[in-house]
Amino acid sequence: AFLSSFLVSGLLHEVALSLPVNRGYGLPTLYFLIQALLILAERKFIRRIPFLWQKAWLFGCLILPFPLLFHPAFLQEVFLPVLHKLGYWISLAL
């Protein structure tokens, strides 16, 4: 059930992040499967290391594989244009 929930989450993110740009398929699912494996590793090993290293592990596990979740095609074709439009509307409001 644990791995299945991460797999389903990855597939739903595929619909939201890869389908709109018709590229990057498999990357969001891979991100979530990596997260599941890292959680399993954390449960086994992380309690044995100092607190600051635990926090470094946490941030590393989240940040380093981030390009798999928000792949370049999504960033270029969806995210950046939305930021551009948002900036335009903010400048109009000011």
How would you describe this structure to a colleague?
80% of the residues lie in helices and 0% in strands. With 94 residues, it is an all-alpha fold. The termini are far apart.
Number of helical stretches of at least 4 residues = 5
Helix coverage percent: over 70%
State the distance separating the first and last CA atoms.
50 Å
Shape descriptor reads: flat
Over the alpha carbons, how many angstroms does the gyration radius reach? 17 Å
Described by strand count, sense and barrel closure, the largest sheet is: none
If you average the pLDDT, what whole number results? 92
Strand content: under 5%
Q: Which blocks of ≥5 consecutive residues have pLDDT under 50?
A: none
Q: What's the β-strand tally?
A: 0
Structural class: mainly alpha
Q: What is the H/E string?
A: HHHHH
Features of the shown structure:
mainly alpha, 5 helices, 80% helix, flat, 94 residues
Task: Summarize the model shown.
The chain is mostly helical and 94 residues long. It contains 5 helices and no strands. Helices cover 80% and strands 0% of the residues.
Secondary structure layout:
Blueprint: H1 2-18, H2 27-45, H3 51-63, H4 66-69, H5 72-93
Helix pairs in contact: 1-2
